[in-house]
């Protein structure tokens, strides 16, 4: 079931075989409600968010529940400006300035939820 399935529905039937007549039910309204986003989590590769200077770090965002087309944004040290979009953020060559708290924000248009922050340490 999708949100766009909301609407008015009725059924039609043909009664009889020779001189059939058509009958129609009274319409009913069906409303499909979206499920708010919840359970947004962040994982890192390498695990724990500790990465050697110059190595690659990949952060992944997942949503446990929710409906609607999802969009993602990545935030560093509480900045409102996103570092990137999409369910993954890749730092190809981690530098000294990349340490800090990272957070993923998921949005479905109807609701927004954030992951707990993950502290990344560049060693």
TrEMBL record:
Entry GO terms, CC: external side of plasma membrane
Ranges annotated as biased composition (Basic and acidic residues): 89-99
SMART domains cross-referenced by the UniProt entry: IG, IGc2
Membrane-spanning segments: none
Gene3D superfamilies with a match to the protein in the record: Immunoglobulins
A biological process term (GO) from this entry: cell surface receptor signaling pathway
Span of domain Ig-like: 27-121
UniProt-listed Pfam families: Ig_3
CDD domains to which the protein is assigned, alphabetical: Ig
InterPro entries linked: Ig-like_dom, Ig-like_dom_sf, Ig-like_fold, Ig_Fc_receptor, Ig_sub, Ig_sub2
GO terms assigned for molecular function: transmembrane signaling receptor activity
Keyword terms, alphabetized: Disulfide bond, Signal
Annotated spans, Disordered: 87-123
The protein's name: FCRL2 protein
Gene designation per UniProt: Fcrl2_0
């Amino acid at each position: 079931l999708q949100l766009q399935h909301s609407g008015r529905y009725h059924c039609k039937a043909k009664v009889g075989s020779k001189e059939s007549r058509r009958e129609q039910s009274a319409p009913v309204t069906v409303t499909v409600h979206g499920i708010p986003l919840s359970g947004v989590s962040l994982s890192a590769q390498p695990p724990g968010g500790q990465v050697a200077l110059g190595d690659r770090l990949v952060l992944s965002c997942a949503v446990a529940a929710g409906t609607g087309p999802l969009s993602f944004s990545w935030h560093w040290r509480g900045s409102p400006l996103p570092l990137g979009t999409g369910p993954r953020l890749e730092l190809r060559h981690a530098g000294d300035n990349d340490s800090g708290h990272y957070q993923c924000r998921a949005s479905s248009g109807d609701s927004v939820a954030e992951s707990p922050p993950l502290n990344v340490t560049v060693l």
